[in-house]
Structures are given as structure tokens and as C-alpha cells.
User: Which sequence fits this backbone?
């Protein structure tokens, strides 16, 4: 009976190890694109709406799968040890092991391998997300307590031929218009403290740092209206530092920027004079 039980334990242990190894392999190699995934396979994340989103979602979901597999292995070993070395009649003490070199080498090598794998996928995703393209449009963004200004650098655009701006205040959530399927360069500047420019549906955010220009390129791939937020706790009304992203067709975009020019909102608003006065009442997020 004892022998049979041991053989059964060995067999099920091997099956478990094989299963977990397979799941890890799937998790790390089975990533394809974030497009076209259902809510369940996106793990509840918002529908991706930019060309950079798949890289971020693959890294995020892949990292969670790797964590889950490692978690299951660790819990499995804990419960196995708890069961195998549980107190029995006669209170036998299990064989005490010290300075078990192969085991210690394993403890050192395995976490190192995990870090190497995660590091590799992180650097790869970072390089893809931050890759620069030839931008079709440039928007200079100023973050300021507690709103955003958007400068549309369209001086070389034959359809517009001017720089236009939109200044948000704490009472008025500013709009950001961008054309769909066109690479956009965002140059980020801060007038005061560190903010963070974040459009959740683009799976992208980047710090807006005073005295340090940050920039990134992104191609919005879905028409529609999306939320934009400040993702860096920047002061009392940080939570009110919102903006609305409108991804529209090229014609609508040109018409919108021309509209700003017609309203006299020309020229670039730079820090520190860009955005809002001190608040009387924080703006409220609109219900869609
Ligand atoms: Cu902020």
C-alpha cells in the first residue's frame, strides 16, 4: 500500500509539473495581438485603440500568467510539504537537511531565470511602445495644475497653415482632437510639477516633467471619444485633471483646428502661462 501510494504521488507530481510547465510556455509564447480579443481574454481591460496597445496588453497579460503559474507552483510546494511532513502518530521528525548544495543552486538560478525572462519581454515591449515614427501631426501638450493645453502644430499643413491651441481650465475639461490612423507626435511639457499624460484606451502614459521635454508617437486606430487623465498625483485637484480625446477623420480634424484658428486661438501656449487659473470649483467628468 505504502509503495503504491508513493508511486501514485510521484506520478501525479510529474503530471502537475508538466502541466505547469506547459502553461508557462503558453503564457510566455502564446501572445499575439491585443486586437480582436474579447473582454475575458483582455482580463477586463479597456478595448485597445492605438497601435501601441497590443505590446502593452501582451506584456501585462503575459506577466500575470507567469505570476499565476509561479504562484501555483509555490502554493503547490507549500501544500505538498504541509501534507507530506504533517505530524503523524509517534511525532516523527523528518530527516533534517542542511547545506543541500543542488537545492541552494536551484533557489538562486530559478529566480534569476524568471527575472531574465520578464526583463527581456519588458525591454522588448518598451522599445516597441516608444519607437519613433515619421509623425503626420504634432501636438505640443502642456500640463499645468490642474488642466491641460493642447497646441496643434499645423503651420506646415496646407489645409490649415497655422498653430492653434486649446487651453483647459479646472472648470472646463479640454478636448484633444486627433485624426485616426495617422501617427501623432506628442511633445509633453509641464509648467509646474510632474504630471502624467494618460489615455487608458491607448494603453499609454508618459510623465510630464518640468524642465524636461518628453515625447512619444502613437497612432490612434479607433474612431470615438476616449477618456484622458493625469496619472501622477500632482496636488489637490489632481483628480479633476481630465481631458477628452476625440479620434476623428482627417477632414474633421482639419475642420476642428481651423475652427480654433477662426476663433482666434492661434499661436502656441507654452509654460508657465498656458493653462488654468486657480479653481473655484473642480470640473466634473461627463457621463457618457
Ligand atoms: Cu496632474
Assistant:
Amino acid at each position: 500500500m505504502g509503495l503504491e501510494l508513493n508511486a501514485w504521488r510521484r506520478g501525479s507530481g510529474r503530471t502537475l509539473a508538466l502541466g505547469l510547465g506547459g502553461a508557462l510556455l503558453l503564457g510566455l509564447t502564446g501572445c499575439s495581438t491585443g486586437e480582436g480579443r474579447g473582454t475575458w481574454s483582455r482580463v477586463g481591460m479597456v478595448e485597445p485603440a492605438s497601435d501601441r496597445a497590443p505590446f502593452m496588453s501582451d506584456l501585462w497579460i503575459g506577466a500575470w500568467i507567469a505570476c499565476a503559474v509561479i504562484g501555483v507552483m509555490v502554493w503547490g510546494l507549500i501544500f505538498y510539504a504541509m501534507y507530506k511532513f504533517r505530524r503523524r502518530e509517534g511525532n516523527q521528525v523528518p530527516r533534517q537537511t542542511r547545506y543541500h548544495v543542488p537545492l541552494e543552486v536551484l533557489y538562486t538560478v530559478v529566480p534569476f531565470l524568471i527575472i531574465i525572462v520578464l526583463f527581456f519581454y519588458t525591454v522588448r515591449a518598451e522599445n516597441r511602445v516608444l519607437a519613433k515614427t515619421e509623425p503626420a501631426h504634432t501636438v505640443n501638450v502642456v500640463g499645468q495644475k490642474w488642466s491641460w493645453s493642447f497646441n496643434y502644430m499645423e503651420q506646415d499643413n496646407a489645409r490649415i497653415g497655422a498653430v492653434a491651441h486649446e487651453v483647459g481650465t479646472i472648470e472646463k475639461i479640454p478636448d484633444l482632437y486627433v485624426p485616426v490612423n495617422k501617427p501623432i507626435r506628442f511633445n509633453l511639457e509641464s509648467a509646474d510639477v510632474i504630471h502624467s499624460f494618460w489615455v487608458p484606451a491607448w494603453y499609454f502614459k508618459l510623465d510630464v516633467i518640468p524642465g524636461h521635454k518628453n515625447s512619444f508617437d502613437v497612432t490612434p486606430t479607433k474612431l470615438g471619444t476616449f477618456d484622458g487623465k493625469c496619472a501622477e498625483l500632482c496636488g489637490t485637484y489632481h483628480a479633476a485633471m481630465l481631458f477628452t480625446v476625440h479620434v476623428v477623420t482627417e477632414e474633421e480634424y482639419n475642420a476642428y483646428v481651423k475652427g480654433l484658428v477662426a476663433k482666434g486661438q492661434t499661436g502656441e501656449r507654452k509654460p508657465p502661462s498656458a493653462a488654468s487659473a486657480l479653481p473655484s470649483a473642480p470640473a466634473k467628468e461627463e457621463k457618457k
Remarks:
- Helices lie at 2-29, 53-84, 101-129, 250-262.
